[in-house]
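In line with agreed milestones, the collection of sequences with tokenised folds has grown. One record among many is set out beneath this paragraph:
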Amino acid sequence: MSNPSMKNGGSTVREHLVTSFRLVLAMTILLGLGYPVVVWGAARLIASKASTGSFENAGGRVVGSSLIGQKFAAAGHFHGRPSAAGDAGYDATSSGGTNLAPTSKKLADSIKAAVEAVRKDDPAPGPVPADAVTSSASGLDPNISPEYALRQVPRVAAATGLPEARLQGMVASRTERRFLGLFGEPRVNALLLNLDVDGAVPKS
């Protein structure tokens, strides 16, 4: 003779399994498929370029992303902010700052050396901007201050032959203001500014 309680128990287990399976399936569709598609679509709609990496092209090839800093060493280019990401800097796989305390002698010595290097390359009057001699927390900041950009104008003009007034206009046109007039600091994207310079230099 069958036991009704065993039948009821088996039915309850099956009901729980079916309910659990349905829940897992629903959440997988909702969060594993639906949510990513909605976020991706919103990103493409609101910030189509940034959502795909903000890659910049020159001469038919990708030269970098305007979202990630890189090293510019040529005299005819505006130099970016120093980087402590990786051994050579600007390493996206080793993003980070120096992690040195404000009282660190090593930090003080490195800043002193950086100030001397900036004054040698760009001997303009006035104090050296802080972003010219200190790295960002990520080491990948693509922007520099307008003050640092303007300090480099004489060197870039001498190397490229472009008038200083024209280069100053490029800096002004690439200067991004504070978000809503409140957040962040005025900044200039080094990559975009250098692409402007390259495009203005007469091709030989």
About this structure: The mean pLDDT is 88. Residues 56-200 form one domain.
